[in-house]
Amino acid sequence: MRPTRAALLLASAALAPALLLASPASAAPSAAPGTVAAASVAPADGTPVDEMSDDDLRIAVLRILGDEESGRAVVREANKALDGTVEDLRTFLKTGYRLARAEDDRVEIARILGAEDSGRAVVREANEALDDGTPEALRAFLETGLRLARAEDDRVAVARILADPASSPALRAAAEKVIDGTPEELRYFLETGRYEV
Prior knowledge:
This protein is mainly α and 197 residues long. It has helices spanning 3-22, 54-66, 72-83, 86-114, 120-132, 135-163, 169-178, 183-191.
């Protein structure tokens, strides 16, 4: 790591608590054009990217780098921006971050499609997100669509347990209780609960 980047990382780590405490408790649902997304990378005052100082731009990019959920493409593009000019930083925050995250999301969706336990609903919804191709559709699938599609597949699996003549009465009773449950209840039943009956 270059000495300048190390110093910036230390500075951003020291400033992060103060900036986080100064930020509002709730974020707007979407950022206006020219502002940094609500991923808490903007200064507490909500300064648009075009008006951010050089230091604020670097801190915003370093925050993205410090996010443990940042994938390879985001890390690659953030590092390129840090090695570049102030305009490179602005471009990354305005569009590059969104596009790099979409690249990482595509990789994650491909991994989900390749998993053995991906059911029909998960495969259908993942393919729809990939066919749409927009960063927003990819992100929506990973944030909410996957959970809901997996719940649909889990309901089918629970219904199969109910229909299986080899299922014990206790297992059927447990399956009946959970079939209309939340996605988390369905997942727990299939992974653990059915073995506890």
